[in-house]
Amino acid sequence: MNRKPIVRALIALTFSILPGVAICADTDPVKIGVLADMSGVYADIGGQGSVEAVKMAIEDFGGSVLGKPIEVVSADGQNKPDVASGIARNWYDSGVDVITDIPASGMALAIMQLSKDKKKIAMVTSAGSSDITGKSCSPYTAHWTWDTYAMSHGTGETIVKRGGKDWFFITADYVFGQTLERDTAAVVTANGGKVLGSVKHPLNTSDFSSYLLQAQSSGAKIIGLANGGADTTNTVKQAIEFGLPKSGAQLVALIAFISDIHSLGLKDAQGLMLTEAFYWDLDDATRAWSQRFYQRNKRMPSMTQAGAYSAVTHYLKAVKAVGSKDADQVMAQMRATPIDDFMTHNGTLRIDGRVLRDMYLFQVKKPEESKGEWDLYRLVATIPAAEAFRPLGDGGCPLVR
Fold first, then answer.
1. Residues 121/173, Cβ–Cβ less than 8 Å
2. pTM for this entry
3. Which of 19, 169, 344, 377 has the most CB atoms less than 10 A away?
4. Checking DSSP bridges between strand 64-65 and strand 68-76, what pairing results, if any?
């Protein structure tokens, strides 16, 4: 009689009933999906750079967890919710445990619902709508890097308090732009300013002449750019061609990334105020990591690429700590554990999905102030996390009791 199968069964039964002894049922590798914009307006802030940042996080973690290798898949979501949802659904169904990057807010909101339905995790490191942690919040989503509330309160409030009272918005006509305009307009009016008008443009617009003419004719002293990526850089370049800055109007990039400023060049971008969650030249730790990133990508990282590394690292630490890929256990561990890395110090993940961290208000340097190709910012102020992000009870998140 072959007793080996019986012995194995008895051992398994014994371990299953012993208190305090757990056997990991997660026999498949941890799989991470990077759903990015690989060729559109947000390719420089995420794209292949986000994929490389995730690979760096995995390598630094040791390449495996729960005794299995960590795998990465990536795809171009084309900034289209339907395309991105189709990819995400296929990934989740085929064993992907967490999806990150997710550059467009419409994509993020769609994938968040999908991740909730499937009890899988989404870590939004690129999209910015504050609704992600507001009315649309999910127990399976972490909003990692920035949001429209933080940008409107960081840059917008500073401009108003410095005397920029009359505003006109040029806004990307989708969730992100609409939310950014809404949040900033609320800050402007709350601080005694006025919104004289706004105009909306499609994503990936090449000709901003009609929108700039409307802004100019409004008489507003502040032209708030509630768009991002190539849309922002094109707006600034064409505004300079139209002579708006010379006529006394101040351009305010409500969300701009280091790649945008690099693309514009200091001659055109000098003096712009902007808020970011990360800058490569803040301290020794940011410089060391960014130089490693530069060796792989030949450009300095954006805050969203640094955010992808930070988010994946925190996720992997949580998986290791709980000994499981179970989304509920991992999310609980991520909320219970402080976030502390080169990008984020003493950060926390709230119940609504918002990661709290300090934000930084920068001003773009003049050409004569810069010491190198990527020496672009001067730090104006550090905005404490409690001031930078929306209070927990104000967002309408149904998870908040």
1. no
2. 0.88
3. 169
4. antiparallel
